[in-house]
Amino acid sequence: MIGAPPPLDGPRVTLDQASFRALASEVRVEVLKKLDERRMTVTDLANALDLSKPTLLEHLEKLQAAELVKRIDEGRKWIYYDLTGRGKKILHPERVTIVVSLCLSMFLAAAGIFALASGLTSGMFAAPGYGVTGGPQPMGSSVS
Questions:
Q1: How much is the pTM?
Q2: pLDDT tier at 74 (50, 70, 90 boundaries)?
Q3: Is residue 97 within a helix (H) or strand (E), and if so which, with residue range?
Q4: Adjacent-strand bridge partners of 136
């Protein structure tokens, strides 16, 4: 079927914190898009994106650390950069299922457990017959 979403058991890409940090920069996303067209040297990329080589190299290092870009040194004069399979999958998500795995999911699970536990105990001290201090009070008496 044309335009059908990928099956949930199909190829997956896991986005970790390094990936999110790498993708948080518009410049790095532009680098990925340029490399999606063809592999390029630092000079090619710097000219295409109007960036200095040192600045571009910093961005490339972050993309390499996130395993989105690879450095290709064939022993010749030029060193090329290209997308990894993971980088290609992120640029073309229509073919893969992207799985987000961050500390955030663990935080949300802990927050849910805390909310559930506090919801269960919140009514514990509000039972009829208990005053502000939590001790039994005779019915009809007021606490001053």
A1: 0.60
A2: confident
A3: strand 97-100
A4: 130
